[in-house]
Design goal:
Length: about 260
């Protein structure tokens, strides 16, 4: 059943401003988590805008690299394609090349999805790794400190695509999800895990996202068609960083670029 929540969104002029806002958000949320709990467990997604943000975080000429509490960070992935780690489509490869190879993170701080394995095995191994790090028992779900999401032009998020089995998964931490639309398998965190995170934000840019974003936030509740509607944070607050093209059909933000929606379906 849908639950009420608040969406706070910020709208930025273009791709560079959006990437800089994302880099700053990663730093601020990681510092908050590290100060509160001594550790910042961050789950990240792929895509061109996250890539730009990761490059900024890794750039010694930018302020973000120095401000990030690298020694207290753990990096996880929200989802992964079922490809080897050196494949051009690998989310891990993108992140490694943009950031991981350039920042002071040790291998034991990085928890990738082994996309080169058989999908169910990759999902099981990733769930085992998460359970071990979070010391979970039984049906417990992990609580990530920061979790970054994107959204596809079909309304999918993570690798939870329209009309796929992952929409209905309630008990597991990680699943292998067959995506007929792309004739492929993906490995993804489940939506009950995603909504458990302390700080969840969407990073969305592009004209092709305006209509699906409008339907996700202001249209009828239909998560079978628009899986992003499943992301109703337990905290009651969902943040979105948007460029002006993606935000074109939402209520106009204020002079500072801030907008707010109360979702109660």
């Amino acid at each position: 059943m849908p639950r009420p929540y608040v969406v706070e969104y910020r709208v930025y002029e273009g791709a560079d401003a959006l990437a800089r806002a994302a880099a700053e958000y990663f730093v601020e949320s990681a510092r908050t988590a590290a100060a509160a709990r001594g550790l910042a467990r961050i789950a990240i997604s792929g895509g061109s805008t996250p890539k730009r943000a990761f490059e900024l975080l890794a750039n010694p000429a930018e302020p973000y690299r120095k401000a990030m509490p690298w020694e207290q960070v753990q990096i996880y992935w929200v989802d992964e394609r079922c490809v080897p780690p050196d494949d051009k489509d690998s989310n891990y490869r993108m992140t490694r090349e943009a950031m991981l190879d350039k920042v002071p993170l040790k291998p034991e701080q990085i928890f990738r999805i082994e996309g080169e394995l058989e999908p169910e095995q990759a999902a099981a191994r990733y769930e085992t790794a998460i359970r071990g790090q979070f010391r979970l028992e039984g049906a417990e779900l992990p609580t990530f400190d920061v979790l970054a999401l994107g959204m596809g032009d079909d309304g999918h998020t993570a690798s939870i695509f329209p009309h796929t089995d992952a929409i209905h998964e309630l008990g597991r931490v990680v699943v292998a999800n067959h995506v007929p639309q792309k004739d492929t398998w993906r490995v993804t965190l489940t939506w009950p895990v995603i909504v458990q995170a302390r700080d969840i934000f969407f990073l969305i840019g592009g004209k092709d996202k305006a209509d699906p974003l409008h339907r996700v936030l202001e249209g009828p509740y239909d998560p079978e068609t628009l899986p992003s509607q499943l992301i109703q944070p337990r905290s009651g607050l969902l943040r979105m960083l948007l460029d002006k093209d993606a935000a074109a059909l939402l209520p106009a933000p204020d002079a500072q670029g801030a907008g707010k929606l109360e979702i109660a379906r």
